Amino acid sequence: MVGRKKLLEAKVVHVPDGDTLRANCSDGLTVVVRLCSIDTPEQAQPYGPEAREALAAMVLNKTVRIEQTAQDRYGRIVGRVFRGRTLVNEEMVRHGHAWVYHDYSREPEFARLEERARKARQGLWALPKAKRVPPWEWRKLWKGKARPARTGWRIWPWILATLVAGALAGGAYLWMTGRLDISWLVPSNLLRFLSVGQAHLPASLSLC
Q1: What is the mean pLDDT of residues 175-200?
Q2: Which helix or strand (DSSP H or E) is residue 129 part of?
C-alpha cells in the first residue's frame, strides 16, 4: 500500500485484458496498471475478449491519468484510471463489462451500477447464468484442475530411468556371457582389464 495517492499521466500502449493496461509515462517509464475495485472475465472465460475490447476502446493510444492507491504482489500499480473526467473503472461496471471486486472495492457506487447493469442485461449480464462465473472463482477452479495434470507427468522420468537401467543391465549380461562384442567401443587397455575379470566368472555364466 502507498501512504499517499500518487498521480501519473501516461499514454496507454497495450491492453492485455479488461482490467489491466500498460502505459508509457512522459519520463520514459512504462507502468502496468491494474484497475482497482473491479474484476473482468479472464480471456478464456465467456465475455473475456469483449471486456478487453471495451477497455481498449476507451483508453488504447489515449492519454490517461492514473491515481495509484496501492501496489500488488506482482509489482503492478493498482488504482483509478481517468480519461478526461471519465472514471474508466466506473464505466466498465456501468456498462456490464466488469464485476465489482467486492473484497477489495472501496467504491459504494459501483455496487449500485453493477445491479443496474445486471437488471438491464448489459454486457456480461446478458450471458446465461451458467456462464456468468465470477473471475475470482473461475481462477480458483482452473488452478485446482491444473494440478493433477502436472502431477501425472512425473511418472515418465521413472519409466525412462527403468528402461535405461534395464538396457544397461541386459547389455552387461550379454557382454559377460560372451554374447556381445564391445571391443570396438572400449579402449584396448580397459578391455584387457575387463577381460581378466570376465575370465574369473562362474562356469554357469561362461559360454563357448
Answers
A1: 61
A2: none
- CA nearest to 87, candidates 51, 95, 165: 95
Split into its structural domains, the chain has a count of: 1
Task: State the average pLDDT over residues 185-195.
Answer: 60
Least Cα distance to 17 among 25, 45, 202, 128 occurs for 45
Q: Name the CA dihedral angle for 178, 180, 183, 188, rounded to a multiple of 10 degrees.
A: -40
Whether 97 is in a domain gets the answer yes
Mean confidence (pLDDT) of the chain: 84
The pLDDT-based confidence of 121 (bands split at 50, 70, 90) is very high
Strands 77-83, 63-71: pairing is antiparallel
- C-alpha closest to that of 118 among 86, 90, 94: 94
Catalytic residue positions? 34, 42, 76
Q: Decide: 100 and 111 in contact? Cβ < 8 Å.
A: yes
Residue 146 domain-assigned (yes or no): no
Q: Which domain holds residue 116?
A: 6-141
- pLDDT higher than threshold 80 for residue 63: yes
24: CATH: 2.40.50.90
The pLDDT of residue 133 is above 90: yes
181 inside domain: no
Cα–Cα dist 86/83, whole Å: 5
